[in-house]
């Protein structure tokens, strides 16, 4: 059921405002994944570095809180959730896919389906720490654990896509 | 804030009852991932079949609804979410890891870290369809799309772990 938020604003409006306020964060993440050079001597190191930054960005406490807020309200306000998914989540994945296409064009990755590759990159890295945070109500990882998720995830990604 | 559910039961109790009621489903998923034979002539086909069943099980509308319910209440009732995570999510992953260890012992997979392999298997398959459902408020996939997620996910998994 729609409720009311602080100062009597409808909860839907409140959620919409919070989602809008994170546009800068999403821009930042899209910039992050667009920035990988395709002509580097060390593509594996660059991707490992991206993996660690990607994990850091998506496991920030306020990003996880926003994620829970949108999910919790998605059946009541499906358009809001859909909008967040398309303008946030999918935009970052599309930018990552464009980066992977660029790397593939330069022979630094092997894929003729860059969007599934971007989906796999994200899922390999984020599935465990994001779920842990979602179900426990707060982030559960240490920095060392994020390092470990990044190392394991990128090893699997490179084994499949290099 | 804790609220009340139908018939005046505290929302926490209601969520706890729903989580308990899904024990059978979790048993079913654990059975599913334990059932892969390690001496088959066609390990790749078996894993592809498991991938498709795994996707079907975790994208059932009622499983996704329960998932949203637990996530939405996780900051108010963190013990409940933690319990669901450990008894549900982690139990299935531990069973899958035991299966991968068995396959590795028989030379059908290459991994000396079966739990990260199980995490990767799950993340490759579930990250996109589960997120889509979470943010849109309902499942968004067709059966053909689940087939496609399974095919793409298992191809990447086998490229890394075979």
SSE inventory with pairings:
The structure is a homodimer of 162-residue chains.
Chain A: H1 11-21, H2 23-34, H3 43-58, H4 61-72, H5 78-105, H6 114-136, H7 143-161
Tally of domains of chain A: 1
Number of strands of chain A: 0
What do we call the CATH homologous superfamily of chain A?
Answer: Tetracycline Repressor, domain 2
CATH level-3 fold name of chain A: Tetracycline Repressor, domain 2
Biggest sheet features of chain A:
none
Q: Give the proportion of residues in helices of chain A.
A: over 70%
Average pLDDT for all residues of chain A: 89
Give the end-to-end Cα distance of chain A, rounded to a whole number of Å. Answer: 48 Å
Class derived from helix and strand content of chain A: mainly alpha
CATH top level label of chain A: Mainly Alpha
Shape of chain A: globular
Low-confidence stretches of chain A: none
What is Rg of chain A? 17 Å
Order of H and E elements of chain A: HHHHHHH
Describe the oligomeric state of these chains in a short phrase: homodimer
Describe the overall structure:
The structure is a homodimer of 162-residue chains. Chain A has 162 residues and is mostly helical. Chain A has one domain (7-161): Orthogonal Bundle (Tetracycline Repressor, domain 2). Chain A has seven helices and no strands. In chain A, helix 5 (78-105) packs across helix 6 (114-136) and helix 6 packs antiparallel against helix 7. The longest helix of chain A has 28 residues, at 78-105. The radius of gyration of chain A is 17 Å and the shape is globular. The termini of chain A are far apart.
């Amino acid at each position: 059921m729609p409720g009311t938020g602080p100062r009597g604003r409808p909860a839907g409006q409140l959620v919409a405002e919070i989602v809008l306020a994170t546009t800068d964060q999403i821009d930042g993440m899209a910039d992050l994944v667009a920035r990988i050079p395709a002509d580097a001597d060390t593509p594996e190191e660059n991707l490992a570095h991206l993996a660690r930054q990607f994990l850091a960005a998506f496991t920030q406490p306020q990003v996880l809180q926003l994620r829970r807020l949108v999910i919790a309200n998605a059946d009541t306000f499906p358009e809001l959730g859909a909008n967040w998914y398309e303008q946030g989540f999918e935009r970052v994945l599309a930018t990552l896919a464009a980066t992977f296409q660029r790397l593939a064009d330069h022979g630094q990755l092997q894929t003729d389906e860059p969007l599934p590759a971007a989906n796999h990159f994200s899922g390999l890295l984020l599935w465990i720490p994001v779920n842990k945070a979602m179900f426990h109500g707060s982030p559960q990882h240490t920095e060392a654990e994020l390092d470990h998720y990044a190392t394991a995830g990128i090893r699997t990604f490179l084994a499949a896509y290099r």
